[in-house]
Amino acid sequence: MKKKITVGTTVVLILLAALLTFQVTYHFVGLQYQAKVETLTKTQSDFSLLAEADPVIRENFLGEVDDEKAEIGLIQGYVSSLGDPYSAYLTAEEYTRYKKEKETTGSAIGVRLTFDSAQNRIVVYSVLQGSPAQKEGMLPGDVLTSVAGKKVEDLGFFEVMQLLHGEPGTKVDISVRREIAMQVLDMNFTVTRDKVKANAVAYSVLEGNVGYMQIFSFEEGAVSEFHTAVNALVSAQVRGIVFDVRNTSGGDATASIKMLDRLLPEGIMVRTVNHKGEKKELKSDATCLQLPMAVLMNSETSFSAEIFAATLKDFGAATLVGEKTYGKSMEQKALELDNGSALLLSVLAYQPPVSPSFESAGIEPDVAVALEGENIYLLDQKSDNQLQRACALIIGENH
Q1: Is residue 359 a contact partner of residue 345, using CB atoms and an 8 Å limit?
Q2: Is the Cα torsion angle 45, 51, 53, 55 positive or negative in sign?
Q3: Across the strands, what pairs with 320?
Q4: Long-range CB pairs of 79-83, under 8 A, 24+ apart, other chains included
Q5: What 8-state DSSP symbol labels residue 154?
Q6: Sign of CA pseudo-dihedral 366, 287, 225, 268
């Protein structure tokens, strides 16, 4: 393939929406803002160097100053100077894509894919219930060989994603290689794209009567799925529950906090502080889950998933298993400007009830276990050593 994409050793990207990449350049092409700066009477002195530089550039630069590019460059540089890796300036076009991404609720064909770096291939690891892909017969484990008439080996991961996406009702030809009973089958599908609601939570009862819940995303709609899953596992009389938030990032902190409220006794779950220094404490009620719990995490576990893990740890309610997390505790908000562009700014910081902020530092596991294998999505229960360790802890707590 032309491009290999890894997150640690593997990149897992979910075909539930197009990815949005913001590339912020901090490059000043020109600075025509003396008149505008002069209107900012309160901070005029802070921009005196800029006001001085503008006419010097215009009088000496060998070329023309593009005022529009200069304005964008100035804003990008301003945001960059904040020193916050999560804040960015979005042009009107970027902001439109950003809003579309936030609003989307479906996928092109209804599969989750992973890049298997060990064998340089793209593999289906999950097919959504009731999706176009399931209706046509695609299965987990299928290896993509061609999409829309193009060989996957000649494409990169993002190019494959782009080819699979399209308007609802349109069709895409997909070829896969499937291994069944030691036989290798080459199969062709024509899948009609449609909007499919992706599950945010998946759960099952594992060997040893241990409940397992994988949380793909912490969004508002995931809360009801979470409650359903917890209730089902409790009804199954499991020994305890392993929550898997490996590679789970971003999301809505509010959703994470609502999930925690279902699990924890009365107490402070999280503290927040805004740009004014105003602090709030968010508390849980007395209703809680009285079962042993463990949380699986890795270097791609971030923000809402980190809040989930850190709070359970601080309450002494769960054991954290796996690898140190990413380290992101700040929430961003998009603030639209008059020309349709927007500022994406960090506006709120979250902190666990007892332990220090995990911003930039990440969260260390209670039981450190390096994954034996390159891709958790290609492992079953018996070959996933991190999951095996978490299950052993749950079983051990019942003896």
Answers
A1: no
A2: negative
A3: 295
A4: 79/24, 79/343, 79/345, 80/24, 80/26
A5: G
A6: negative
Burial class from Cβ neighbours inside 10 Å (0-12, 13-18, 19+) for residue 256 reads buried
* pTM of structure: 0.81
Rounded to the nearest 10 degrees, how much is the dihedral formed by the CA atoms of 159, 161, 167, 169? 120
- Please report the DSSP string for 187-249 in residue order: EEEEEE----PPPSEEEEEETTTEEEEEE----TTHHHHHHHHHHHHHHTT-S-EEEE-TT--
Question: What is the C-alpha to C-alpha distance for residues 172 and 154, in angstroms, rounded to an integer?
Answer: 18
CA distance 220 to 213: 17
Neighbours of 195 (CB within 10 A): 13
Q: Are 111 and 133 in contact (CB under 8 A)?
A: yes
Provide the CA 313 distance to its chain's centre, in angstroms.
22
Whether residue 377 contacts residue 125, with contact meaning beta carbons closer than 8 Å, is answered with: yes
CA 113 – CA 105 distance, rounded (Å):
17
By C-alpha distance, which of 317, 321, 386, 383 is closest to 353?
317
Q: What are phi and psi of 168, to 5 degrees?
A: -55, 135
Contact 87, 332 (CB under 8 A): yes
DSSP structural state of residue 149: T
C-alpha–C-alpha distance, residues 87 and 106, integer Å: 27
> pLDDT digit string (tens) for 230-257?
999 999 999 999 999 999 998 999 999 9
End-to-end CA distance of the chain: 50
**Hunting for tokens 């359970």 — which residue is that?**
312
Under 8 Å between Cβ of 299 and 322: no
CA 272 – CA 353 distance, rounded (Å): 10
Q: 276 with 300: CB under 8 angstroms?
A: no
What does the pLDDT look like over 254-290, one tens digit per residue?
A: 999 999 999 999 999 999 999 999 999 999 999 999 9
Residue with tokens 């793909």: 216
Nearest to 360 by CA among 329, 327, 391: 327
Q: Token pair for residue 351? A: 């902190």
